[in-house]
Amino acid sequence: MNNILKELQKDLLHLPRTHPKRRAVAIPAMQALQAELGYLDDAAIEKIAQITGLSTTEAEELATFYSLIYRRPAGRHTVRICDSVCCSMRGADQLLTAAEEYIRTPLGTVTPDGALTVLPGICLGLCDKAPAALVDGEALGPLNDASLKALLQRLQQKD
Amino acid sequence: MGKIMLDGHAIPFKLGDNILQTALEANLEIPHFCYHAALGSLGACRLCAVEITPKDSGKAPRVAMACLEPSEDGLKVSVSAIAAQQVRQHVIEFLMINHPHDCPICDEGGECHLQDMTVVCGPPYRRYRGRKRTFPNQDLGPLIHHEMNRCITCYRCTRFYQDYALGNDLGAMRLRNEVYFGRFQDGPLENPFAGNLVEVCPTGVFTDAIFRQHFARVWDLKTAPSICPHCSVGCNTLPGARDGTLRRVRNRAHPELNRWFICDRGRYGHQYSEHSARPLAPRVSGTDTSYHDALNAAASQIKSTQDCIGGLGSTREDLEGNAMLQALLNNLGGIFTAFSDPKLETATIAAVSSLQNIGNAPSLAEIEQIDAALIIGDLTAHAPMIDLALRQAYRKGAKLAFLYSSPTPLAQFATTAITVSPQEMCTELSRLYQLINAQSAAEDITDTPMTDIAASLMGARKSLLIGAIETMTSQEVSTLSKLATALGSDTKLAYAFSGANAYGAALLSPTGSAVAMLEAVEAGQIRILIVAGNDPLGDSRFGTRWRAACRNLSALIVLDCILTATAKAADILFPVAAWTERGGTFINYEGRAQGFATVFHRPEYLPNVARVITDLAQYLGHSLQAAPSVLGDIFSDFQIPKPGTTGSLITAPSLPMPATASAHSIQESCNSTWQAALASWYGDEALASFAPGLMALTPKTVAMIEPTSAIDAGIKNGSKIKLRGSSGSMVLSVRFNQDVATGTIAIARNVLVQLGVGHGDSLELEQVL
């Protein structure tokens, strides 16, 4: 277990089980665990529930609501191509198909080498840079076929 | 009070109500899904669109959601406006994009809110030809079937489950078009009120899994107003039967009691009447016979042993059955009681007597309004719907205080919770009584949990003192009623009795009659015992004595609809109608007499208890009056309440408060350090124990001990111990539990019966290596 999580747990130790701070800690605890594991498996959800005093169902409600919390394995690098209105009009759908063909892996799954996950994402507010993408937490755009392929290639080789 | 104009009709409204509530109150339907009277408005479904024209004539009419728009005087509302109709039509068309076309095989068909609304508002044809969104379903246990594809995301289920019933194992997952209502992982829903999802869901996502096993279309079901026989609250129910079998039970709204919901014991406990071991033919000495022969056999037995007869009614037997048995015994010169457990008898009579003196118990609607409560024992098992009412009070900020010996689910919402061993409960209650009496004198109030309880009860605007009678002694009952008197008229007193008609049974049983009956059987003075709906041989505290005593009988005549230990031992057994198969009257915890009607008849001849007693009297050459006039003689001006009405409080002569015997009377001679406490759960009840679906959820049988006292005695968590009581011993594994009192072992009812000990009796403990 990583240090952030240990610290969170230590901070909560003296709070009663129903203290609101416990619930508030759920998201940072999920992010800390995801940073270590890459995604949250069922055991991670149970761990979060144990730390925060939420039920496993309540922890699952949170984890599945936020799109940047992964409940399925993700690659070392994630590319979230925005498919909301502006990006879609500027060719996001073709980009998604192209990416899928290039990495030969369905959207939302991990490439065999564990390097990449490409998936559609919700609006990033980068309509001026459409079609845009969120790559390992950083916003990029506008993308085209060539720049996307170069990006994917770079990510696969990087490590 | 103002009025809104709804499509030209002036409709009065209560201040603060929205348009939808105003319309529904006036019996005018505005189409809706997510609004529910108990759960309020959400605005999630967008179906209750209406066109409103503000009074200010300068403003143009606009479409608004009726459930979110407050009613204002002079507001013009149109349900029939074209703009509103179009919105509703589009909403339905959108919902039907993903909703499967599976109505012909859907259990909800015929009582489906979505089906109704689609017919009322929607387009008659589906234009969409694309793929539908689909979900995997979850296994939600033996009681509820899950079919997520049918969901229209109205959020009624989670609003009921999380917000109303305060459960935390059903939630809304994911987002957008993929919202999923379920659990973290497969498994039975843990909340004792989960079954209400079946009725709360406007479509077929949650359906009754027990009904599904033996399904019938709703329009084929025979229904009649009934009363739940599974506890003393007396929730109103609507059972449905077909082809001579009972298929399901649903809630029937009572404005002051259960309103929109019932508990899972009430909904699923009904399977007792379809149990494979249910006696359906009269039996004499173990062989099936005809009703006529059984009556003959019983009559000749009674004739041959004149003057030596006893009649044991029951707290779960209706008023008519108990009163007729009493009338027969009066004619024959025998003795009658409705209680097989003398301790339970004195506690119940003490409780009824104190309610008569102090004022009647509050209804569930009133309990929801209290702001402080003291709860003695476990209500979730003894009166689940009172538990639900207290959850509503808690949601509104009420402070709940607990004194309890074994785990109770409601205590998770406690402001103050103190575990007290059964034998010390009375002392602790007296301490609280003294604290409250000395409140003005005590200036240096120390900050102990008990003073917290005293302070919250004294500071409350409306408070409630409530106890579960089965785990209380008569001294505790009288101390609690003294406490209520000391707190004044803003404090209500209530008891969760053991048995649907316990209040009525107490009115018919003279004080001390149970112990007199047991001693007379033991002494051989009673040679014939007629038992109606009672199970003395299966009693935990007195079962051993009853079993020994019954060897003196020349005939044990039993009338029951379930195969209890007593029914198994009967020399002559009359199977009687189950509650849905007969009409009668129950008196609930408030003293409210409620009538229930015959829902259906089974193919076998199954008379009710009053009928069997009348027939038996005839075979003996006596003629008894009909039940209504017998009851009229006992309770002046008593009118049998009509089924389907709200019932009325019974006026009965005051019961005397039983003399309180010394606290340590029966079993205390044995100087063991451990006491037994009843560990109950919401399915724990005599009738419901014959319902296989519900019983599949029975918690594992373990011995629960408080960690500190266990460690002091050298007992480890998970280790095996041998418990010994007056009638046997049993090896159980230990489970540490903070919610058990010091020096107490919390064990399930079946273990208590096997050991022959009651709640609060001493136990011997031996470690098994």
SS-based structural class of chain A? alpha+beta
What oligomeric arrangement do these chains adopt? Answer: heterodimer
Instruction: Give the low-confidence spans of chain B.
Output: 662-670
Q: What proportion of the residues of chain A is helical, as a percent range?
A: 40-55%
The CATH architecture of the largest domain in chain A comes to 3-Layer(aba) Sandwich
Question: What is the C-level CATH assignment of the largest domain in chain B?
Answer: Alpha Beta
Total strand count of chain A, please?
A: 4
Radius of gyration of chain B, in angstroms, nearest whole number: 28 Å
Summary tags:
heterodimer; A: 159 residues; alpha+beta; Arc Repressor Mutant, subunit A; Glutaredoxin; 2 domains; 4 strands; 49% helix; 11% strand; elongated; B: 769 residues; alpha/beta; Ubiquitin-like (UB roll); Rossmann fold; 5 domains; seven-stranded mixed beta sheet; six-stranded mixed barrel
Quick structural summary:
With 159 residues, chain A is of the alpha+beta class.
Task: Describe this structure as you would to a colleague.
The complex is a heterodimer of chains A (159) and B (769). With 159 residues, chain A is an alpha+beta fold. Chain A folds into 2 domains: 3-65, Arc Repressor Mutant, subunit A (Orthogonal Bundle); 77-157, Glutaredoxin (3-Layer(aba) Sandwich). Chain A is built from 8 helices and 4 strands, in the order αααααβααβββα. Chain A has a 4-stranded mixed β-sheet with strand order 2-1-3-4. In chain A, a hairpin with a 2-residue loop joins strand 3 and strand 4. In chain A, helix 3 (26-37) packs antiparallel against helix 4 and helix 4 (42-52) packs across helix 5 (56-65). The mean pLDDT of chain A is 90. By secondary structure, chain B is of the alpha/beta class. Chain B has 5 domains: 3-94, Ubiquitin-like (UB roll); 124-274, no CATH class; 290-342 and 503-649, Rossmann fold, CATH 3.40.50.740; 345-499, Dimethylsulfoxide Reductase, domain 2 (3-Layer(aba) Sandwich); 674-768, Barwin-like endoglucanases (Beta Barrel). Chain B contains 25 helices and 34 strands. In chain B, the strands form 8 sheets. In chain B, strands 15-14-25-24-23-16-17 form a 7-stranded mixed β-sheet, sandwiched between helices. A 6-stranded mixed β-barrel of chain B has the order 29-33-30-32-31-34. Chain B has a 5-stranded mixed β-sheet with strand order 2-1-5-3-4, sandwiched between helices. In chain B, helix 10 (342-358) runs parallel beside helix 16. The interface between A and B is medium-sized, with 13 and 12 residues.
